[in-house]
Amino acid sequence: MEESKGEVKHILLVKFKDGLSEQQIYEYIKEYANLVNLVPSMKAFRWGKDVSIENMHQGFTHIFESTFESTQGIAEYVSHPDHVVFANKLLPLFEKAIVVDFEPTKVLV
């Protein structure tokens, strides 16, 4: 397999704490999505809710995907003041979370 050029994905899986309404969660997600307008190294943002029928989600309910051009871009994002302020507001709302960064590959046929 060949590594894709100029793209690194930052994946966050989350289970929010009980007591938050869907509307409250959505408002935080809108703030998260706005980081793409504030953090130059963040190129794209997508999110969704678990819809798996395999029941292997281990309680994680929301998935967030951010795209960067490099691992250096992720480092810039993590330390960016707007991300730091947002993360300090969002992290206490998580019952659990996991982060994975990866470089997508392209299957050669």
From TrEMBL:
Homodimer. It holds the Pfam family Dabb. SUPFAM superfamilies: Dimeric alpha+beta barrel. The gene is HS1. Gene3D superfamilies: 3.30.70.100. This is Stress-response A/B barrel domain-containing protein hs1. Residues 8-102 form the Stress-response A/B barrel domain. InterPro entries: Dabb, Dimeric_a/b-barrel, HS1/DABB1-like.
